[in-house]
Each structure stands twice: as C-alpha cells, then as structure tokens.
Amino acid sequence: xxxxxxxxxxxxxxxxxxxxxxxxxxxxxxxxxxxxxxxxxxxxxxxxxxxxxxxxxxxxxxxxxxxxxxxxxxxxxxxxxxxxxxxxxxxxxxxxxxxxxxxxxxxxxxxxxxxxxx
Length: 118
Prior knowledge:
Pfam families: ArsC. Belongs to the ArsC family. This is Arsenate reductase. By secondary structure, this protein is an alpha+beta fold. The protein has one domain: Glutaredoxin (3-Layer(aba) Sandwich), CATH 3.40.30.10. Strands 2-1-3-4 form a 4-stranded mixed β-sheet, sandwiched between helices. A hairpin with a 5-residue loop joins strand 3 and strand 4. The mean pLDDT is about 95.
C-alpha cells in the first residue's frame, strides 16, 4: 500500500491513524517533497475513475494561478499543472496492493482501501 500525504494535513493524519490501527503496512510518499510526474498522475487518476481536475484543491489551485476549464480539451494541461504544483493535489491518496485507490478524506473511502488490503 502507498499513502500520498502531507504530514501537516489533518485528513492525512487520520488516514495514518486508521491504517496503523488496522495493522496495515504502507509506504509513505510525501508528495510535496517527491512530486508525482504526469504519467504517475494519469495512472492514479485512472484508478480513481476521476478526471484530473477532480483531484485538484480549488483554493490551492487558485493560489497557484491554475485556472483551467474542467473539460476534456484541457485534460493534458491539468496533468501538467498537477505535476508542476503538487500542492493542489487532494490528499491523502491511498493505493492498496490490489490497485484499489481512493482519496481518503472520509471514513467510507478509508474503509474501502483498508478492506481491499485485508
């Protein structure tokens, strides 16, 4: 299991607590220090069954000057923006060893990925 996190984020800390409580072994990726490239982002977004703009944090995107239309014509630009400005990526993103991937911001998403790992 891999966990993309920002250690200062309360949702990330909750995810860590839940994974630890479930006894799950995971690898931490501090995505602000080790940003994903566009290819990795494409893989993750595909596993999430979302669009790249769906994993963008609106406030941070605005602060970073990312103001793109949320449509297929701008999909590649969104991937480039997410790679260039990892601060705008939703967190935590968790991928179980079976490929199940969630944005673990709520209990249901955390349960889903924990269930996939156990």
